[in-house]
Amino acid sequence: MTRGRLITLEGGEGAGKSTQIRALDSALSTHGIAVTTTREPGGTPHAETIRGLLLNSEPGTFDGMTQALLHYAARREHLRQTILPALEEGGWVLSDRFSDSTMAYQGYGAGLGRDLIEALHTIAIGTFKPDLTVILDLSSERSQVRLDTRAEDRNAYELLDQAFHDRVRAGFLDIARREPDRCIVVDATLPEAAVTAAIFEAIEDKLGLP
Ligand code: TMP
After folding, report:
1. Residue 122 CB coordination number (10 Å)
2. In 3D, which of 181, 165, 196 has the Cα closest to residue 22?
3. How far is CA 10 from CA 35, 104, 138, 176, 193, in A?
4. Which residue segments constitute the domains of the chain, with CATH numbers given?
5. What is the pLDDT of residues 70-129, one digit of tens each?
6. What is the pTM of this model?
7. From the alpha carbon of 71, which atom of ligand 1 is closest?
8. How far does residue 147's CA lie from ligand 1's centre (Å)?
9. Counting Cβ atoms within 10 Å, is residue 123 exposed (0-12), middle (13-18) or buried (19+)?
10. Taking phi first (over 0 means left), then psi (-120 to 50 degrees means alpha), and beta for anything else, what does residue 48 get?
11. Rounded to an integer, what distance in angstroms lies between the CA atom of residue 107 and that of residue 68?
């Protein structure tokens, strides 16, 4: 059996990841691919418990290092229990966030730096990386406008200031620059259908369809 593929969607707040995951799920399913959609932090019952700890706390409850450790503890569970079994069965997995979020938010945003996050990645999950990472790029100003129109309460990260979110955005763009084979950047201000089309083209181009 051919191993499936992991595609991750990344980006700042309100970039439209969930909408795109739904669109890609249906597009890939029509190609006969068995798709699992999932998210981080989360994707297993225990990892969802860690998500609650991280997102429902007051900003500043955990320092950047504790956050990074909790995100990687959740990720290791997610990988072992959800992602790897699906890939081994030949399915494709679409994850709303993965390891690049820890690099962008804790490495660049909270200032832990690349080396520390890379070391933690190796300790927690070895050399595992997604097959394709889509970075939905949006300015922090546009992101704030989108958050303002949403009904839900803001999570601990959404409450952080614009300077933090500017560092996160720069972090994602730097990751894409360093790993152009794995990452694509898509302008999140384009109409939804144009974003989906750009992602689908990258999937065909970089991964091919069965
Ligand atoms: P979201 O599901 O609405 O994107 O919320 C998840 C939040 O958690 C988001 O603000 C980004 C943050 N986060 C990190 O800071 N580090 C991580 O490793 C992950 C996966 C998410």
Report:
1. 11
2. 196
3. 18, 10, 11, 11, 18
4. 6-206 (3.40.50.300)
5. 999 999 999 999 999 999 999 999 999 999 999 999 999 999 999 999 999 999 999 999
6. 0.97
7. 18
8. 14
9. exposed
10. alpha
11. 8
**pLDDT over 90 (residue 152):** no
pLDDT recorded at residue 151: 77
Question: If you count DSSP H runs as helices and E runs as strands, how many of each does the chain have, helices first?
Answer: 9, 5
For residue 195, give both structure tokens. 């974003």
Pocket probe for ligand 1: among 82, 97, 155, 167, the residue whose CB has the most ligand atoms within 8 Å is 97
Q: Which mutation among 19, 105, 172 tests ligand 1's pocket best, with the greatest number of atoms within 8 A of CB?
A: 105
CA distance 125 to 44: 16
| CA of residue 210 to ligand 1 center, whole Å | 31
